[in-house]
Amino acid sequence: MRTNGLLIAIDGTAGTGKSTVGKAVAARFGYGFLSTGEMYRALAYTVFAKKINPEDHDGVLAAARAMRFTFARQEDASLKMFVDGEYLGPKLHLEEVGNVASRVSTNGEARRVLTEKMREVGQDGGIVMEGRDIGTVVFPDADKKFYLDASAEERANRRFKQLKEAGENPNYDEILRLIQERDHRDKNRATAPLKPAEDAVIIDTSSLNLQQVIDAVLEKLPQHAS
Ligand code: DC
């Protein structure tokens, strides 16, 4: 075990509840929780704000190198992220930012820069880290690895419901298309493609509710991890 406890990796496709599950698991052990997609989203946001083309390799790399990340632990265990001292918050969760994030995250060198920053945050353990390549690349020696998946149709359904409840007028086919496009990009990029680590516990969440997923994860962890 590391100084501060276990390092728990949760990877998987978008829209499988990784963040909600990760936060609940972290809270259970008094651990921190980091959603590493936020860092790729912050890079996407910066690239967009600086009018850099997401396909401009050197421009994206320079932006990644220049970003200074700091984190403040919140009551719900999550680590609130600041970029160059600024909290970007909900802006990072716009649909467009997610799509640019998936594009800039194909930049292998920028990935290496962000991976190093993730290692600094997680190396002492006592943390749940959620992303796409935590168990395969960032921390191949993580103490416990999970990989959450669900059919694209089920994930599109969930997103559709969320947006509807938020008072929007979503288009199911468009949501499904974007999910499939992102899956394809995340799984087929040359560097750190999305795939389960060999020693990951794979959980298909298609027919499970969030509590059932949380229970399935907790079942595989020691009762007292700290
Ligand atoms: O989990 P998310 O939707 O917030 O992630 C946004 C994008 O960032 C996603 O399309 C893929 C990328 N990402 C990644 O490549 N590696 C990670 N460890 C986390 C996210």
Write a compact overview of the structure shown.
The chain has 226 residues and is an alpha/beta fold. It has nine helices and eight strands.
Structure description:
The protein has about 230 residues and is an alpha/beta fold. The protein has one domain (about 5-215): P-loop containing nucleotide triphosphate hydrolases (Rossmann fold). It is built from nine helices and eight strands. The chain has helices at about 20-30, 35-50, 55-65, 95-105, 110-120, 135-140, 150-165, 170-190, 210-220; strands at about 5-10, 30-35, 70-75, 80-85, 85, 125-130, 145-150, 200-205. The protein has a five-stranded parallel sheet with strand order 2-6-1-7-8. A three-stranded antiparallel sheet has the order 3-4-5, covered by helices on one side. A hairpin with a 2-residue loop joins strand 4 and strand 5. Helix 1 (about 20-30) packs across helix 9 (about 210-220), helix 3 packs parallel to helix 5 and helix 7 (about 150-165) packs across helix 8 (about 170-190). It starts with 6 loop residues before the first strand and ends in a 7-residue tail after the last helix. The site of 2'-deoxycytidine-5'-monophosphate has 15 residues, from helix 2, helix 4 and helix 8. 2'-deoxycytidine-5'-monophosphate binds near residues 14, 40, 41, 101 and 105.
List the helices and strands and how they pair.
Blueprint: E1 7-12, H1 18-29, E2 32-35, H2 37-49, H3 57-66, E3 69-73, E4 79-83, E5 86-87, H4 95-104, H5 108-122, E6 127-131, H6 134-138, E7 144-149, H7 152-165, H8 172-188, E8 201-204, H9 210-219
Parallel strand pairs: 1-6, 1-7, 2-6, 7-8
Antiparallel strand pairs: 3-4, 4-5
Helix pairs in contact: 1-9, 2-4, 3-5, 7-8
The structure holds 2'-deoxycytidine-5'-monophosphate.
2'-deoxycytidine-5'-monophosphate binds at residues 14, 36-37, 40-41, 98, 101-102, 105, 131-134, 182, 186.
